[in-house]
Amino acid sequence: MATIPFDSTVALLREGYPFISSRCEALGADLFTSRLALRPVTFLRGADAAELFYGGDRFTRAGAVPPSAKHLLQDEGSVQTLDGPVHRHRKHAFLELVGPDARQRLGDLFERSWQEAARTWPGRGRFVLHDEVSGILARTACAWAGVPLPAHEAARRTRELRLMIDNAGRFGPPNWYARARRLGTERWAAGLVERVRAGDLAAAPRTALRVFADLRGPDGAPLPASTAAVELINVLRPTVAVARFVVFAATALHEHPGWRGALAAGDEAALEAFAQEVRRHYPFFPAVPGRVREPFEWRGHRFAAGDRVVLDLYGTCHDPRLWEDPDSFRPERFRGRRWEESPRDLIAQGAGRHDEGHRCPGEWSTVELLKRAVRLLAASGLEVPPQDLSIRLNRFPALPRSGFVVEERCAPPGPGGAGTMGP
After folding, report:
1. Whose CA is closest to 140, among 349, 373, 383?
2. DSSP assignment of 45-64, as one string?
3. Which of 153, 171, 326, 359 could connect to 350 by a Cys-Cys bridge, CB 3.0–4.6 Å?
């Protein structure tokens, strides 16, 4: 069992996403121990480690996530902070929201919102795609969740949800400001829940607002309005976070224009492969923390109750034992491969089975939205002016430095026009 004797906080912040996997490669091991903020931590990487982390209820999220991130991405009482039967009971409500019909509706709403926004692009000049798509996704998420979002509130809610995402990996004033703004978002969401319960606000069946307003715990008692609000935000915020995947997809499309024709034509196999490779290749969640519930031993290392453990998501998605030429963007690797059958290697949003552990129930929705966005981008008339598209891997969460600047061309050029998103 390899040990790095010094505190690794500075090294992690300096290197970012590759930190864990680079150490594992150098040590020839899938786990090592070090310290973060002077606290002992065991780092894990690889398919076997993913199976260990997400299987058997060996780990808990309680007390594992730093408050700076927890208050923005989870908060008290949310499904991510629960374990065992209580977690599975709450998780079931999320899984019921993301069935095939619901995903189809989400995708249709997204396309409608995209097309409405696209009508404003000609003659608008240059704009940042990440900003634009974040607004599109916020409006989509609210419509899908049954949440009323008047036009004059859309920019505010989009900004509040983005602050939670953008500042979860930051410290100091930016994080404090985002957490303060989140309190206002929670009050807004709790007010919606209370209005539904009082009969003052109609919420359609099988929408997130209706489900969480009506949801009861295993004891039969209704969720507190504050907890229902947190879970409602846990639907809205991750949907807006998909904007990062959309920007990465735009980057990939710009750098691999040979895929444009099939994607613009709606080739389902090509869309699926391209979307999955975007999720595998680009940096989204860097890692996931946990704490040991009961003592056990794995690969000669003794895990004691309360030990802090971090599973490397990004590194596992780039593990050369699992992926040929892992640092290259190659969508063809996913042709004919069902990603649901790979719960231990394609773990950009967690590992394991959705109904058994903490794997993100929104993965299916993410893939649906990403496929729709890729097709729309490939068929669009957006031009990509010269800019810095490099990605800082020591920024959590990551994004191209420019946010991906685009502009709508006035008249479409011929096929394969240089510098364009479309064919």
Report:
1. 373
2. ESHHHHHHHHSTT-EE-TTT
3. 359
Q: Give Cα separations from 302 to 63, 212, 296, 313, 396 (angstroms).
A: 20, 40, 6, 22, 30
- Cβ-based neighbours of 110, under 8 Å, separated by 6 or more: 136, 137, 140, 369, 372, 373
* Predicted pLDDT at 413: 40
Sheet holding 127-128, edge to edge: 127-128, 405-408, 382-383
Q: What is the CA radius of gyration of the chain?
A: 21
What is the 3-state composition of the chain as percent helix, strand, coil, each rounded to the nearest 5?
Answer: 50, 15, 35
Residue 174: is the preceding peptide bond cis (ω within 30°)? no
Q: Is residue 67 part of a domain?
A: yes
Where is 41: in which H helix or E strand? strand 39-45
Q: Smallest Cα–Cα separation from 147: which of 79, 217, 240?
A: 240
Q: pLDDT band at 99, cuts 50/70/90?
A: confident
The string over 340-351, giving b where at least 16 C-beta atoms fall within 10 Å of a residue's C-beta and e elsewhere, is eebbbbbbbbbb
Number of structural domains the chain divides into: 1
Contact call for residues 110 and 140 (beta carbons, < 8 A):
yes
Per-residue pLDDT tens over the stretch 146-167: 999 999 999 999 999 999 999 9
Look up the CATH number of the domain holding residue 93. Answer: 1.10.630.10
Let me know if residue 192 belongs to a domain. Answer: yes
Could you tell me the CA-to-CA distances from 22 to 12, 314, 330, 332 in Å, in that order? 11, 11, 22, 26
Residue type, 223: L
